[in-house]
Amino acid sequence: MAIAGMEKVAVSHKLKRARLYGILDMGYVQKDTMQQVAGQLLQGGVEVLQLRAKGYDGAGVLALVREWAPDLGEMCRSYGVPLIVNDFAEVAVALAADGVHIGQDDGSLAAVRAVVGEEMIVGRSTHSPEQAMAAVDEGFDYIGFGPLFPTPTKQGRPGIGLENIPLVEREVAGRIPVFCIGGIVPENLELVLASGARRVVIVSALLQAQDVAAATHNLISKLQLNT
Ligand code: 3NM
Q1: Three-state SS for 188?
Q2: Which of 28, 35, 78, 127 has the fewest Cβ atoms within 10 angstroms?
Q3: Alpha helices in 69-126 (DSSP H)
Q4: Residues with CB under 6 A from ligand 1
């Protein structure tokens, strides 16, 4: 179990209620503003926060947090927001995070569980209904489903469009939370929600905003209108 993390039951409960999942993506954030930006996302109201630092290995991610965002875990806890580490199970353990998120090519749930144990939340990226259904059958705690639209945050992947959202919502969302992701911006949020999405991950539209907290707050308000 993540020693200082929230209990799995409590974290699962928070995930089930979450509508907006934010990512502290180091592709958009300067190291020296890392902790500040995390604070702005939390203040604005993200309900899950992932740390994503592509191009770093596990030791690099750990060093990044220790040097530039030593209060990250404590900040998330004080807001009651689960902290999820992208890619590196060992780092999630070292940071006493609440979860780890892995991609399609990052191996099995069992391999991650061997590192993080049974208590930690483990999420999987999925890019088709088949992958989404395989992830829920394998036992993942939540999935990302996308990219709905092509996005500079995940280059080289075509958008999968909106047409399979109702299927995945129907088949998967009753069992684990489904977070739609990829190219979602305030301007297309209504369309994404009208297509059946209930939860979203939004990265660049928040991190590139002039006022990250205000942009996050605006998005939360729009999501809450659509209940
Ligand atoms: N994963 P933005 S799409 C990190 O489909 C990530 O698995 C995706 O960023 C997936 O909101 C994506 O800037 C990028 O488009 C999301």
Answers
A1: helix
A2: 78
A3: 72-79, 89-94, 109-116
A4: 125, 127, 144, 146-147, 151, 153-154, 181-184, 202-205
